[in-house]
Amino acid sequence: LLQTTVVSIIKQQRLLELGHRPLKIAIITALGVLITLGNAAVALVIASSVSGWSRISRLFLLSLTGADAAFGLVVMPLNLCVSLLKDYRDGPDPLCHVVAFVNSTVYATCMYSLAAISAERYVAVFFPLKYASVLTRGRALRVIAFAWLFPPVLLLPISLPRGIIEVHFSTASLVCNPSYASNVAYSLALTAFIFFPCASVMTFANLRLWFAAKRQRVKLQRHAAGGRCRPDAAARVLVPVLTVYYTCWTPCMVTILYNAISGSRVPEWVEFVAVWLPTSNGFLNCIFYFWMNRSFQQKFRLLGQRLCLSLCPEVAQALGCMVPTALHAMAGLWDDNNCLQERSTSVSSTCTLLTRATETHT
């Protein structure tokens, strides 16, 4: 009788979760569209020259953009297809193992890319004269290769149907979830090699940058007279970056550890939010790393005007877009500025975070 009651409760819970599936699919689809469009625009701008951004910086930012775009282009479509095609029977499922492996790999690559960007900014600001010798193109490419190639090696056991990690499709989160409770030691190792190192690097680098920018701003305020006070540029970028990172990734890591240690599941919507919240980081990164940057905004408008003039010149002129001659002149200025910035990338990196406060006194 007890066994029958438990089975009945499980069936009712699964039916309830299936009833919420249309709403969950709509949320995932909307998030995927935002991530894809946002990162497509970012990739278009970064692929060209942006004033104040060196080639090394653009390489790291392209790596992050690629990892974020994979959420919308790979992770979400794969899991939605499985949720629509799967018959929800328990047992080993080779397809689910492959999907779970892809999910985990993209998540880990995104975290490593975020940590790499934080480390690159730290070197650029605190060691500007050694930036070119420390972060050469070869070393930057090796760091990016590590961020993309190490996670598949570390997470390879998830892809094996009869390996040490069991995988099941969750009707609560519509994701092929590895059952970390089947191997607690492995789940702890994953958090030790992925989440905690990346979180430590990001926290250390961004807090050091924030304190340095704060001290610089105080010094400038002491030596200035009658200047207007604007919001701290470092606080508007560095603090939200850390806040969003921990807000998006901590619930997922806590849920993984809880499931692994306790062997039980969290409530339906808690699991759904915890699993899909990290993907929203792929869209929020576009805002904090790119859309809040003035050089990026200007270059995005320039590219938009170019596209508008090339596709619909009559409509562009009717809307007041720049004429082609002025547009080409601006493009030349952008290229000249970028060449100058390539030769003085460390100085521009320092100014970006430490002397933005001078705007309040100019």
From TrEMBL:
Residue ranges of the TM segments: 25-47, 59-78, 98-119, 140-164, 184-212, 233-261, 273-292
Q: Does the keyword S-adenosyl-L-methionine apply?
A: no
Protein's membrane topology? Multi-pass membrane protein
Its annotated compartments are:
Cell membrane
What is the scientific name of the source organism?
Scleropages formosus
SUPFAM superfamilies linked to this entry: Family A G protein-coupled receptor-like
Q: Name one GO cellular component term.
A: plasma membrane
Asked if the keyword Kinase belongs to this entry, the reply reads no
- Name the PANTHER family on file: HISTAMINE H2 RECEPTOR (PTHR24249:SF387), HISTAMINE RECEPTOR-RELATED G-PROTEIN COUPLED RECEPTOR (PTHR24249)
Per its UniProt record, what CDD domains does this chain match? 7tm_classA_rhodopsin-like
Q: Which InterPro entries match?
A: GPCR_Rhodpsn, GPCR_Rhodpsn_7TM, TAAR
Q: Per its record, how is this protein called by name?
A: Zgc:162592
